[in-house]
Write a structure and sequence with these properties.
The complex is a heterodimer of chains A (391) and B (330). By secondary structure, chain A is an alpha/beta fold. Chain A has helices spanning 2-20, 23-27, 34-68, 83-96, 109-118, 132-142, 173-181, 190-193, 216-228, 230-235, 252-262, 272-277, 297-308, 345-359, 376-386, and strands at residues 72-78, 100-105, 123-126, 146-161, 170-171, 207-211, 248-250, 266-271, 284-286, 292-293, 331-339. In chain A, 46% of the residues lie in helices and 16% in strands. In chain A, strands 2-1-3-11-4-8-6-7 form an 8-stranded mixed beta sheet. The chains are: A alpha/beta (391), B mainly alpha (330). The A-B interface holds A 30, 32-33, 36, 80, 107-111, 113-114, 128, 131, 134, 205, 207, 212-216, 236-244, 247-251, 255, 258-259, 262-263 and B 9, 12-13, 15-16, 19, 76-81, 147-148, 151-152, 175, 177-179, 257-258, 261-263, 273, 275, 279, 282-290, 293-294.
């Protein structure tokens, strides 16, 4: 459509140029002015071309405005972790409903929360739920509430590099907290060795690696640590960036895994998806039921199912260290942030339709991209929450 | 000359005097127009810089109010507790830049002397082209080379030797994890060398040939000519190249964050991990959800700006001082 218009624009420029081109020829009849006339002619050509361009550009935007009146365009911004999934969803949804365009910018959870608070986007996305203070700020600014809709689940796994140790290491929550607090400094510390009777761990210093950039992955990791360790909760706390008691920082999943690969006797954490896609082996973590669980899509979804029973109405819930025998303990939702009042009717309808589609058809496409789908109980609950969106 | 031409043409061609008068007036208008245009361009730089500082200043109001000047000397950076101090970042930024300049300046100037004075001109321009190419390599590539080539090489070869030889010095003590202030300084040095070489070479080539000939005529050797005549003559340009390199090193983000270790600590040892201002801002900005955290990051940006200005100012003073001392070199 727009391509057709562009060629039209090109043609009209040529036409414009052609009509003016004879100008210097006419002038040559007055011989002395010939040279200047030639120059003037060239200017005329250029001028006509420029005018043509301007006219066509104006014509095109006018035409676009005309077609856009039927197109509904939604904008969103936020979390980077679910970005591959979201872009696939938005693309698939656009194919089903050609008049609905959803643009998403993965600028980070912080940016997503800020932009939805300012009202510069139609919806936000975040890897960590909004705090009470942030929700209050949004309410004051926009005079409406905000709804959290879980979309998919992510897990975070411990990776390590110990020369001579090839087996899968089992981590108890106490061991992970101790390592990241700096109270456990050797690989053969009793807290690690006891859970791994089959492995001979060396008596070398542990090099701790964490994310340097603020990240939802860090949020999930430290959220788990603060649930299983009082000292962690008191000294460090939970956020997308924290003050790490020990360790080196790597930028992004690739930075952390690169550092772990480069550094002997190191430990780090990365997203489950990143570890699977790059075939990085990772350890198991002991869950609340006392079982050592290897992270995969099933065990991550199981964590959400385990937490679903006590799910609060607004879905702002952490599912780390969830109950259930099969639940992987270092997992989390990622959320879309949608204002509960959307005055533009066509936008409201489009967003509501998309949310419903995402919870039905959308959920069946998550596993291809290694994202864990939502458990049924959560989907039912979310569908009820969608009804809260009003005009 | 041009005017004369139009004048004579006007005289010989009374049929089109109006047009020529217009052209004449346009030609006259050219000067003020040109003046206005260049003035606007120059002013826009000032306006942009001023606006930038103003924006940074306004947007860090929260941390300025809460921490005041103690922001500059605080050592704690805790986004959860909302306590922010910039000292570890300032330290990391300055230390890595100093390491980079200590390595890059002698190397870069020597290379420039070689290219400008000793190599046949044709080969020199080919080599200079290669150097310019180095300057165009994206910094993330330098970072990757740093983490996958330099860091293993440092930890397997350089640092063990270094620690054996001068390990008693506190700056080379302690365990080495590969990523460190030292590694970041070396990567920065590699990154800024092309700037020093490229500009210094141009400056050296611009030294009048007569200066060299005069020196040779007095019986100087090649070395003496370069050291006593050419280099002093080109001194200011070489300083300028070093300052440009310094500015680049202070603000470099991507390559540094990949090899510095990103730990906001102040340690005596260069082999320990650290953090730089630019790296911290880039790392934490996107996911900073609390306003205070955001404000602290903006203030870090302001601090980096101030450091750059102070260092540049000192550099200008240095140039002025040396220029006064040896004014005749000009």
């Amino acid at each position: 459509m727009s391509r057709g218009q562009t060629t039209g624009q090109g043609r009209s420029v040529k036409d414009g140029a052609r009509t003016v081109e004879p100008a210097p020829g006419r002038r040559t009849r007055a011989p002395r002015a010939g040279v200047r006339g030639g120059r003037g002619g060239r200017w005329a050509v250029l001028g006509a071309a420029a005018l043509g361009l301007v006219l066509c550009a104006a014509g095109r935007t006018w035409a676009e405005d005309n077609t856009n009146s039927a197109t509904i365009s939604l904008t969103g911004a936020g979390a980077t972790f679910p970005y591959p999934m979201y872009s696939k969803w938005f693309d698939a949804y656009h194919k089903l409903h050609p008049n609905i365009e959803i643009n998403y910018q993965s600028i980070g959870s912080g940016g997503g929360i800020r932009q939805v608070t300012e009202g510069t986007v139609d919806f936000g996305a975040t890897d960590g739920p909004m705090t009470e203070a942030q929700m209050k700020a949004l309410k004051e600014k926009r005079a409406c509430g905000i709804l959290h809709f879980p979309t998919v689940l992510g897990g975070v796994v411990p990776i390590y590099n110990i020369p001579g140790v090839t087996g899968e290491i089992k981590f108890t929550p106490a061991a992970l907290a101790g390592i990241y607090l700096g109270t456990i400094t050797k690989w053969n510390d009793a807290a690690i060795q006891k859970a791994n009777p089959g492995l001979k761990l060396p008596e070398s210093d542990i090099v701790v690696v964490h994310r340097a950039d603020g990240s939802g992955t860090t949020y999930i990791w430290v959220d788990f640590l603060s649930k299983v360790s009082e000292p962690w909760k008191d000294k460090v706390g939970v956020a997308t960036s924290v003050k790490w008691p020990v360790g080196l920082g790597g930028k992004g999943n690739e930075g952390v895994s690169g550092l772990v690969q480069q550094t002997a006797h190191s430990i780090g954490y990365v997203e489950l998806i990143y570890a699977v896609q790059n075939k990085i082996s990772y350890g198991t973590v002991q869950n609340a039921a006392g079982k050592f669980i290897k992270a995969d899509l099933k065990s991550v979804t199981a964590a959400a199912a385990g937490a679903a029973k006590d799910m609060p109405e607004d879905f702002r819930v952490s599912i780390t260290n969830a109950p259930g025998d099969d639940a992987y303990p270092v997992a989390s939702f990622t959320w879309l942030l949608v204002p509960d009042q959307i005055q533009n009717e066509s936008k409201r309808k489009a967003l509501v339709d998309f949310l419903n589609w995402m919870l039905d058809a959308g959920q069946s496409t998550t596993e291809a991209l290694q994202y864990a789908p939502l458990p049924k109980a959560v989907i039912e609950k979310e569908k009820k929450a969608i009804e809260k969106i009003h005009g | 000359m041009n005017e004369l031409l139009t004048e004579s043409r006007a005289a010989s061609e009374p049929s089109a005097p109006k047009r020529i008068r217009l052209a004449h007036r346009l030609a006259r208008a050219g000067d003020p127009l040109f003046y206005g245009l260049t003035l606007a361009s120059a002013a826009s730089i000032l306006v942009i810089t001023g606006w930038l500082v103003y924006q940074l200043y306004v947007n860090c109001e929260e941390t300025r109010r809460q921490f005041g000047w103690s922001f500059l000397v605080g050592r704690n950076w805790d986004p959860v507790a909302g306590d922010f101090g910039a000292l570890p970042f300032i330290y990391g930024t300055i230390v890595t830049s100093i390491i980079a300049l200590l390595i890059a300046t002698p190397l870069g100037i020597s290379a420039a002397i070689f290219l400008a004075e000793l190599v046949p001109p044709r080969l020199s321009s080919v080599l200079a082209f290669l150097v310019d190419l180095l300057a165009a390599v994206p910094s993330v590539i330098y970072g990757l080379l740093g983490i996958f080539l330099l860091v293993p090489f440092l930890s397997s070869t350089v640092v063990p030797v270094l620690q054996k030889a001068v390990g008693f010095l506190p700056i080379f003590s302690g365990p080495f994890y590969g990523v460190s202030l030292f590694s970041a300084g070396i990567v920065l040095a590699v990154m800024v060398i092309p700037f020093i070489v490229s500009i210094s070479r141009e400056v050296l080539l611009a030294v009048p040939q007569a200066q060299r000939e005069a020196s040779f005529a007095l019986g100087s050797t090649h070395w003496e000519t370069v050291w006593k005549v050419v280099l002093p003559h080109a001194r200011r340009g070489i300083y300028a190249s070093v300052f440009l390199a310094l500015a680049r090193a202070l603000g470099e983000t991507m390559a540094v964050t990949m090899v510095i270790g990103n730990a906001p600590e102040i340690s005596k040892s260069l082999l320990a991990p650290g953090y730089s201002i630019a790296a911290a801002v880039a790392n934490e900005f996107t996911e900073a959800t609390e306003n205070l955290h955001l404000s602290a990051l903006v203030e870090l940006g302001l601090v980096l700006f101030a450091i750059t200005i102070v260092i540049n100012g000192l550099a200008r003073l240095l140039i002025l001082a040396t220029a006064r001392g040896q004014g005749h070199h000009g």
